[in-house]
Amino acid sequence: MQKYQLPSDRFMRAVLIGTGRIAQVLGGTLHARGIKFIGVHGRNKARAVDFALRLESQAIDDLKSVPRYADLYLLAVSDDALAEVSAQLGAVDGLVVHMSGTVPADALASDHKRIGVLYPLQTFSEHRAVQLNEVPIFIQAQSPDDLAILHRLASLLSQTVIPTHDEIRKQLHLSAVFACNFVNALYDMSAGLLESHGLNFNLLHPLIRETALKATSMSPTLAQTGPARRADMKAIAKHLTMLENNPREKTVYNVITAYLLEKYHNITL
Amino acid sequence: MQKYQLPSDRFMRAVLIGTGRIAQVLGGTLHARGIKFIGVHGRNKARAVDFALRLESQAIDDLKSVPRYADLYLLAVSDDALAEVSAQLGAVDGLVVHMSGTVPADALASDHKRIGVLYPLQTFSEHRAVQLNEVPIFIQAQSPDDLAILHRLASLLSQTVIPTHDEIRKQLHLSAVFACNFVNALYDMSAGLLESHGLNFNLLHPLIRETALKATSMSPTLAQTGPARRADMKAIAKHLTMLENNPREKTVYNVITAYLLEKYHNITL
C-alpha cells in the first residue's frame, strides 16, 4: 500500500468523541502525527478533561457545543451509543466517521452531510499500548474525495489501508470474534483449569506464543496438532472424564473436537 | 531454576527411537549440546537413515538390535505406539524415557529397570524450528538419581525444568489442548469464514499476534473483549444469523458466547 501524507498546506481540524480504549490509541497516534484536535467529548467528564490535555485540546461537556467547523468528527463510542451520539451531534458539514466493525455506515444520523467508517482490525484494552502500523484499517465513505481523506488519515496510523463496504466489514468482524475474542476465552478456560490444580498459567505462555506464530507463518490447517487431529479417541475419552466437573469446558471440548474430527478424519460424532 | 551441566567426565550415550517432529527437535538440540547418539530407530527406515546422519549416529532397523549398553533410551513415538515399542525394546539397564503428555510413566514395559518421562509443553510441526529454551519441560523418574539425570538432560534444552507426576502432567496436557489445539481450530474456522468471502487470512495476523501477547502479559480475564464480554446481544444475534450456513461454527459461537455471558454477566442462555 502506498503511504500517503497529509499535504503540508492543510491543517485538518478534528473532534474526537469518546474517551475509551480505541479513542485513546487512535486519538493519541493521530495527535502525534500532526492532527489538530479542536475538541474532545466524553460521557465521563473528568476523563475527557484528562484526555483533552494529552491531545493539547479542550474538553467539551455538551455534544451540542461541539465546534461546527471541524473537518472531521471521529466517533469512537460503543456500537450501542453510536446512533444516539450521532443524533445529538446533529448537523455538521465535516466528515463524520465511526469505528465499529458491525454498524452500517448509514446508521449515522441523516443530518450529517458526509459520513464514513474507519475500522481498525485490532483488539484494544486499557493500559496496553498497541502498535498500529501493521494493523489493517478498513475505510468507507460515500464520495471518492472523502474516501481519499480517510485514506490519508488512516495512512498516518497504518501501512495497510483497505477500502471496504458494510458487508465485508461485518465478515471481518465476525472472523475476528473467532480469532481474538473466542481464542482469548479458550486461554481463559485453560488458565482456569490449570489454576484449579494449583498450576500457574504462565507455564503455557511459550505454547500460546508459538501457536499464534505458527498459525500466522504456515496456515492453521497445516499447523493443527493434538488428539483430535490424530483421531486419538483414547486421549479424547480421558479428557472428557477429566472435565466431568467443568460442564462449560466439557461442552466446548466436545464441539471443537467434533469440528476437528469431521474436518481431518470425516468422523461425525 | 538452576542450570545443570552434564559433568565433563561423563559421556552420556543415548538411543533415540522415533523420527517424528518431537524426535527431530529434541534429538537435534541434544546432539548440538553434546549428547552422543549411538543409534536411531524409526518405522520409516529411509527417514531414520537421514536423521541418524544428522545426529552423527547410525540407523538401527530392528528394535531388538538396539545397543543394550546405552545410558538413555528416548522414546519419541506416538502415544498409541509407546507400549508396543517399549515391549519390543525389552530388557535394558539404561533409563527409558517417554515424552507423552498423557501416558502414565508406568505404561512403559516392566522389563525396563529404570523408567521416566520428559515432557516438553510445546507444539511441534514439521518444517518449523522451535526454540526450546523458554519451554517448560516436565520430568518424572522413579529414583532421585534418575530424576537428577533427567534434570541435567532437560536443562540442556530449557531453562525451565520442573519435576512432576502423572496427574499433574495430564492436567497440563488438557490445558494445552485448549490453549493450543483448540485455539488453532478457531484460527482455522476464522480463516475459513474469511476465505469464503474472498478475504485473506493474513488480514488477521496482527490481531492474532496481539491477542496472544496481550493474554500473556495481562491475564486472559482482563484481556477479554468482544460482543459477549459487553453483553451486546444485538451483535450476537446478527452474528448467529450470518452463521446460518455454517452449522459447526455456529455451534462453537453459541457455546463460547454462553461461557462468556455466564462468566462476565451471570447470564445463562
Tell me what the structure shows.
With 269 residues, chain A is α/β, with parallel strands linked by helices. The longest helix of chain A has 30 residues, at 166-195. The model of chain A has no long low-confidence stretch (mean pLDDT 94). Chain A is elongated. Chain A has helices spanning 21-32, 45-54, 79-89, 144-155, 166-195, 205-215, 220-223, 233-242, 247-265; strands at residues 13-17, 36-41, 72-75, 92-98, 112-120, 137-141, 161-163. Chain A has nine helices and seven strands, in the order βαβαβαβββαβααααα. Chains A and B meet through helix 5, helix 6, helix 7, helix 8 and helix 9 of A and helix 5, helix 6, helix 7, helix 8 and helix 9 of B.
Summarize the structure in short.
Helix content of chain A is 44%, strand content 14%. Chain A is α/β, with parallel strands linked by helices and 269 residues long. In chain A, strand 3 (72-75), helix 3 and strand 4 (92-98) form a beta-alpha-beta unit.
Number of strands of chain A: 7
Structural class of chain A: alpha/beta
Rounded mean pLDDT of chain A is 94
N-end to C-end Cα span of chain A: 46 Å
- What is the makeup of the main sheet of chain A? 7 strands, mixed
- Oligomeric state of the chains? homodimer
Number of helices of chain A: 9
Order of helices and strands of chain A: EHEHEHEEEHEHHHHH
User: What proportion of the residues of chain A form beta strands (DSSP E)?
Assistant: 5-15%
User: What global shape of chain A is seen?
Assistant: elongated
Largest interface, chains and sizes: A-B, 90 and 90 residues
Spans where pLDDT lies below 50 across 5 or more residues of chain A: none
Which strand order does the major sheet of chain A show?
A: 2-1-3-4-5-6-7
What level of helicity do the residues of chain A show? 40-55%
What's the Cα radius of gyration of chain A?
23 Å
